[in-house]
Each structure stands twice: as structure tokens, then as C-alpha cells.
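subagent[fold] <- orchestrator: predict structure for attached chain, return C-alpha cells only, no commentary.
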Amino acid sequence: MQYVIASLFGALLLFGFIALAGAGHGWIAGALSCLPLAAVSFAAWLNALRTIPSLHIANGLLVTACVVLVGTAYGTLSEGARYFLDYWHLQGPLAGPVIALIYFNWVFACGLTWWRRRAET
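subagent[fold] -> orchestrator:
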């Protein structure tokens, strides 16, 4: 079951790759960041749902994701923030929180890992 859940969250980020690219007029840096974040998300959820989750793995995945996000910020600035802003204006105000929850789902997995490890001690 843990593989199904981890695959679901990874697949949502892979779908985000398609959705954020938006037929050439979307946020390309955000779309490209979905590829490595899909792997981070899969690993984070797999770790969080293990019998005994590892804090070392969770912390390593957070560092990896932060490196990806720094690269995304750099890419967004280099392609021009206009694409970023245009994409969010195009989606409307209600889509932003949903997209953000999908894009940052690995944060919740790492939080679940910390919570489960803290509950054990």
C-alpha cells in the first residue's frame, strides 16, 4: 500500500510537469522542477509510510528539494518572472492553493516522518 500512495504523489508531480509547462506559455522552470521533485516526493512518502521511518532520509530529501527549489528560483528569474506571474493569473485564485499542495506534498511526508519519530520517543 505504501508503494501505491508514494506512486500517487509522485505521479501528481509528473502531471504537474505537463500542467505547469502549459503548451509553451507556462512556467518552464516550475515544470522542469517537477521532474526531480517527483522522485523526492516518491522517496519521502515511501520513507514516511515505512514501519520505522528514517529521519536521516527525511532530512536528506528536504535538503535535496531545497536545492531543486533554489534552481527553480534561479530559472524563474532567468526566464523572466513574467511567465511565473502569467501562469498564476491564468489559473485563477482557487487553483493556487491546490497546485501548491501538490507541488509541496513532500513537505507533508517529511513532517509525517518527524511526527511519527517524535511519537515513538
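orchestrator: received. Logging for downstream: The two ends are 26 Å apart (CA to CA). The chain is about 85% helix and 0% strand.
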